Amino acid sequence: MTKSRARAPRESATSSGLPAPLGAHWTGEGVNFAVFSAHAEQIDVCLFDPATGEERARYRLSGRTEDIWHGFLPQSVAGPGTLYGFRAHGPFAPREGHRFNPNKLLIDPCALDVAGELLPAAAVNDDPDDGPLPLDSAPFVPKGRVVAVEFDWQDARSPAVPWRDTVIYELHVKGFTQLHPEVPRAWRGKYLGLTAPAVIGHLKSLGVTAVELLPCHAFTSETFLLQRGLSNYWGYNPFAWFAPARQYAVADPVLEFRQMVRALHQAGIEVILDIVLNHTAEGGAGGRTFSLKGLDNASYYRLDLANPSAYLNYAGCGNTLDAGHPAARALILDCLRYWAQEMHVDGFRFDLATVLARREQGFDPDNALFGAIRSDPVLAYAKMIAEPWDLGPGGYRLGGFPTGWSEWNDRYRDTVRTFWRGDAGQVPALAERLAGSSDLFRRGGRRPQASINFVTAHDGFSLADLVSYERRHNDANLEASVDGHAENFSWNCGVEGPTTDPAIVALRERQMRNLLATLLLSQGVPMLQAGDELARSQAGNNNAYCQDNVTSWIVWPYAGPGPAAGLRDTIVALTALRRRRPELRRDRFFKGSPRGARQADVRWLHPEARDMQQSDWADPALRCLGMLLRAEEGARDLLILFSSLDFDVRWRMPDDAPGPWQPCLDTSAPGAEPGRGAVGPDIRLPSRSVLVLERMA
Question: pTM, whole model, 2 decimals?
């Protein structure tokens, strides 16, 4: 333990500076520091020697404008590269919500870069309720680093891909390139790894238009993971929202993140950042104090009104950011603007986004934060994606976000999984999901692009594991395999885990093609998970958040159990078909009724030569469905047939849609290549397959 050494701030060395912008900003003549605290009595900025880590100077922020404390240090004292932190003086009264202790070094919430690691130490831990400990936490806390923000973007601009044309590819910066043989060794697992020509070429070949990066802001591992010899791999435990994670940098994370974005933009690929603004790594009572808790605990966090020493835990990680407080709301907006304006990020996926819209009475889609985003000139046209739930009361809000937002649609995931597993009675739900989930998103003038469709994501089984395991196998997480989702709606095709049985291997491959085809043939925005095109397996682990190893990394080329015949080719064919056929990416929901003299924009067909009737929709034994999409003028109608039956079906077309029809995709074949010529009104639909046909006349 390190006792705090009293150091009197050298107030005369700083002028009052300016209250905006918040954080540490290089002006060309010095550094302006500004930080919010409504309840502090004094705030000091501390400067550190980069070589030794020792505190070399401490200055009182002499200016105060309302609740912003600010001061200016000339370039003779501070400049780009300077390491710093704050110390806040004020009441230590946990039962009133205050946890001030100047012995705690506090990370600037707006730091653009941080250096060093957050180390386990008693000095960093929350102080007991009976009084603050006189232990200096500075040796164990990362320091902010002053950054000069200039960068040459070389005229690289956002691709600005319309929502209707977007295909998202979710990836982890480290896991995607850590084992890639065509990435320079020093760049593997780093931001720069995503700039390698082989990597960008792979993304382009798949037809994806945007990468959604798992959290790239500064994060740390939970203490309990470190005690088990594990680490937080996914990154959902943030401590500095503005700062790119140093784990993914060769040297300079700010520079290299920008180089990554520039290279992806030059290739026509957008960058969406998964951002965690619902909680911080400080945890709840008994956690750690290294930033917001020590600066103004009562303003930044949701506290139990009956006992303000306790935290409301809607994120499941100990604390919940109070996005309804003006200071927290301003911090969120500044953070989003910074990533969009200075780092050129194209959009955001908000982890546990319901937290951001919580007021005292519960979820409010008309809250001030969403209104501010909608009216902000920098953010108004960025892609906004909500994970539409949290762990608080009434926290599941799928379909409840306002116009302009898209949402992860877990009902889509579960419906598609249960249909292909062969569950009875899934056809009505499948039709709704194929049509863009209008039951969830039609309200308020929203469009099909409000639905982010996915069958796999980082959280849950990979595609290969979805067809290979019926239960989670999370022993490596050291939580007795009770973590992760218990119900995955998966089917192992007859054997749990790896097998060499050729019939089961072939069935699993077909099931993967079926899941991919359904995803990319549905209305809405499809999201693929990185590595699924390679049949990447996590050996049945459906919660690999702490597996920073080959369990989670992508092996290039993949050499897991069983061949991945044609999966990549299937995706390439599907994304090409999606680009070619606007009927697959409508920006309006189907009406299902004639447009003037035209026929209905969509018809739902039964294999017995008729449109689906009410009795058909209610038939629990029905496990096949036809979707006939009427083409725009001059184009050919599109027919998509789905069957989860384990035997072939004779499909008869209605008299008013006789064909002939030309198959253009067939998941019963490796690579989904059609292996037959034109067909007439009687079509053989293979077992467990998707067949896509275009009308020839």
Answer: 0.96
